[in-house]
Amino acid sequence: IAEGGGGVFLYAPPAAAMVRLEVPGHVLQHFWDLANIESEVRRESAVNLVNELKQAQDEHVGGSDGVMMGGGGGGDANGAVDGPALEGCSPVLVYALKRLARGLGSGRSGARQGFALALTAAFTEIPLVSLPDGLKLLKSSLEPITQSTKGAEARDILMGQLFGIAALVRAMATRFKSGDLPLDDALAFGASVAEETSRLAASKAYLAESAAAVVLELRAALGAGMGRLFDRSPALTEWITTPASKAGPEVVQLCMELWPYLPQKVKERCECVPQGGVKAKDWGAVFQRDRVETVRDALMESSYVHPRVHGVWDGLIKRAVEVPDAVETLWDVTCEHGLFTSGSHQRRYLGFRLFSTLLPLCEPETVPSLFSHGFIRCLLNNLNKDDNYLHAAAEECLDSVVAYCKAKDTPQQKRLSVIAALQRLGPNRFDKISKRNAVRELIGGLSVDDASGYMRELMGIFVHAPADGAKRAEGAPGGELFGNKRRLWALEQATGLWPKLPAASQATLVKLLVTHAFYQSDPDAAASKKGKKKSAGLIEDAGVAPLAEPLDGLREACAVRVSSLLERNLKAQRASSAGKDDKPAETKPAKKGKKGKKAADEETEAEPDAAKEAPADLLSVAADLCRAMDAKGSGARLVDDMPRECADVRGSLFAALDEVAGLAEKIGKGGAGADASVAAASAVAPLLRVLSVLQLGDWREFTPAIEDLPRCVDDLVKAPEPKKGKKTPAKKGKKGK
Q1: Residue 396's pLDDT band (boundaries 50, 70, 90)?
Q2: Through-space distance between the first and last CA atoms of the chain, rounded to whole angstroms
Q3: Angle in degrees, 0-180, between the axes of helices 25-33 and 91-103, rounded to the nearest 10
Q4: DSSP assignment letter at 97
Q5: Which residues contact 705 (CB under 8 A, 6 or more apart)?
Q6: Quick one: how many helices (H) and strands (E) in the chain?
């Protein structure tokens, strides 16, 4: 066959005369358009070409012109490959089918996709050509691979064979569905396809994913008849029963997708799926930790399709989101302790892609598990420097998080979970390390009322014991979590809202944390005051309610978080005070600019969403609450009760704090010695309040350190008086001489 002179020439065997085949130019143009990069152009060209072929075939039926083409058309020089019969086909159809088959081996633009599409349409719309002839057509039209075939050429030929088989499978599905193809013929053809596809998958690793997709196309076409295919295809059975230690991601994919169709004897040989089997709606056994660990290495091998995500993950994620705790297990085993611990950039990139896929699909309670330590570390390491290999991928991942949280259809609870998870490293520390303002941007999108209302709901979840430790609170915040796991989640969410809370709500949260970190209800005090409700009311007012059992890790979590929040508040107060001092001076912008990178960043870190008003003195709130709790009749007692002598030291500390506070109040009214006393009061008061809270956490360590502090405070407060006495000894000294 050769083109020229405005048409196509068909050369018959030597004994026959040469026949000139006229193919219109616009028909030949369709072949060029099939290679177009635009999918719509390829689709339109395939439709038009098949219509032209059908018309040519209709005109040929019953006619005597032309040459009946059969066999040949390709293969090696010795004719080792038998060509298709193509009996009854018009010369134009024969030419087109062979050209389409040859075009599958072209890597030019969209040629392989376009020619496969046209081949599918041709075998679907023109049933004259049998499907087995289609397999022969592929083998005879594509060049055979020899020792002299170069690597790129061999790859194109193998990919062409696989695309051609996929095209025939889709044509078979249409014929079988319409009733034009009997089941036995479909099974016979399916077995041939399965054998050929399994052979291609074993020949080259890069063909395995596409080969698995062809097998799944067979399943979709044959339906329940797929189970009868394994007895006819030993190569497919061998592929699907590959041991887990040698399996690739395609084996895992085929095991899960084909499990309902596998014969029992084949199931018993499969290692990538639990022996109990997988029911249509029960995938819990597949996502047990030990089963996921079994196939972890196989799943990690899926990075060979970089930068795409292997098809096995689509099936896993789709089913994991429907199984309780499955997303957490899948992420922790395959990503946290798999992809992110690997030294491969491709695997870490895959981890970023999987995170971006899972975040919109998971429940709010699962978000903290996704923001795992290994993921955060890898993300920040690559965001920190522009020349890091995965810097662009890390930026894309973080941008997807921000975009998802800012989307209008994102649930508020999900948005708050992401904000809390990003702040797990500390107040605004994520923004500082990543050199991005992702957390600040997300917090800025919250409303104050929503944040405050949600915080109170979370506080209630934290203090109350779950109604039933074996049941989930469906529909409630954190309802997917059990027991104390849900309570710790609620605590983390509440503290994550801190930057958006007004001062009053921040004070409420600090009181809750201090109360449940260090105090518990005193039943003796409550019983001794039967006529008063105040004893029980203080715990309830500050802590919502007494902290219900079980308490594993809850008080320690409160102590850690209140310490972090108070430190954050102190930084915010210092930043606010420094800002006020700098405002009147119009000549200081240069100095501000110099300290902008370090000091200013730390001030910003303390309060990323700083309000125009000065931050509240929450340290005073915490100290006053501790004092009220320590008082007799408060109805509260320390969780770690301190001995009497330590309590006396604590009492003297509060007395010194009263003295400093009284002096500051007196100075505020215009008393004498304002400069020295105000300086002393402002410097010492925060220290005393900090120690009054820290002593509760470890009174054994802090009590000796603060034992002499009240006396030092007394000397500091009375410092102005000795100034007069200094002159008298000096004069006496001179007289003595």
Answers
A1: very high
A2: 132
A3: 20
A4: H
A5: 691
A6: 36, 5
- CA 271 to mean position of chain CA atoms: 28
Structure tokens belonging to residue 409: 């259809």
- What three-state secondary structure class fits 477? coil
Among residues of the chain, what percentage have pLDDT more than 90?
Answer: 33
Q: How far apart are CA 43 and CA 113, in angstroms?
A: 10
pTM (predicted TM-score): 0.69
Residue 10 bridge partners (DSSP): 19
Integer Cα distance of 499 and 506 in angstroms: 9
Q: Are 456 and 449 in contact (CB under 8 A)?
A: no
Question: Cα 566 to the chain's mean position, in Å?
Answer: 31
CA distance 607 to 571: 8
Q: Hey, which of 43-47, 258-262, 468-472 has the most confident mean pLDDT?
A: 43-47
d(CA 263, CA 228): 8
CA 164, distance to chain mean position in Å, is 37
- Residue 713 is which amino acid? V
Question: What average pLDDT does the segment 551-558 reach?
Answer: 86
Burial class (CB in 10 A: 0-12, 13-18, 19+), 454: buried
Quick check: 24 and 92 in contact, CB under 8 A? Answer: no
pLDDT of residue 592: 41
Encoded tokens for 187: 């099974």
pLDDT in tens, 31-76: 899 999 999 999 999 999 999 898 888 888 755 444 444 444 444 4
Chain segment 26-39, per-residue pLDDT in tens: 778 888 999 999 99
Task: Round to whole Å and give the CA distance between 243 and 271.
Answer: 6
Taking only the tens place, the pLDDT of each residue in 213-249 is: 999 999 999 998 999 999 999 999 999 999 999 999 9
**Interior angle at CA 550, CA 547 and CA 552, nearest 5:** 100
Under DSSP, is residue 707 helix (H, G, I), strand (E, B) or coil? coil
Rounded mean pLDDT of 587-591?
41
For the four alpha carbons of 20, 23, 24 and 26, in that order, the dihedral sign comes to negative
How many Å apart are CA 578 and CA 448, to the nearest integer? 26
Distances (CA, A) of 462 to 79, 99, 421, 459: 79, 71, 17, 5
Q: For 318-346, what is the mean pLDDT?
A: 93
CA distances for 99 relative to 41, 95, 112, 534, 559, angstroms: 19, 6, 12, 93, 76
* Angle at CA of residue 35, ends 105 and 213, nearest 5°: 55
Residue 701 CA, chain-centre distance (Å), reads 43
Backbone angles phi, psi at 7, to 5 degrees: -150, -165
Cα separations (Å) of 643 from 635, 648, 650? 18, 9, 11
